[in-house]
Specification:
Number of strands: 0
Shape: globular
Distance between the termini: 31 Å
Structural class: mainly alpha
Radius of gyration: 17 Å
């Protein structure tokens, strides 16, 4: 399936990755292009890996939309449980009514479920 996508559609923008990496090291540090590209590839694989597990769960449950809980489930299944609690906290914060940048399925008032169906 990945062969169907252009490279730029398969990986996160290198500028975003470079910014995140730069924030994680001292200001005097430098990061090579090779290191940025290696992290770019790893991050893209990581996202695909987790997403495919979450998508399989949704498929088994006959749902079309992958939700935050599906991602958490996939992470547990893949042995990444140390990230689950911090992500649960993040999801809870994102779903608070005061966060206007997120409109998740739990916050909807249009009468539709997360697949956009009644």
């Amino acid at each position: 399936e990945i062969g169907e996508f252009r490279e730029q559609d398969r990986v996160l923008p290198i500028a975003n990755i470079a910014r995140i990496m730069k924030n994680a090291v001292p200001a005097t540090s430098k990061i090579s292009k090779e290191a940025k590209e290696a992290v770019q590839e790893c991050i893209s694989e990581f996202i695909s890996f987790i997403t495919s597990e979450a998508a399989e769960k949704c498929h088994d449950e006959k749902r079309k939309t992958i939700g935050g809980e599906d991602v958490l489930y996939a992470m547990m299944l893949l042995g990444l449980e140390q990230y689950v609690e911090p992500l649960k906290i993040h999801l809870a914060k994102m779903r608070t009514p005061t966060n206007h940048n997120f409109m998740g399925p739990m916050d909807r008032d249009d009468g539709l479920n997360d697949d956009g169906e009644q």
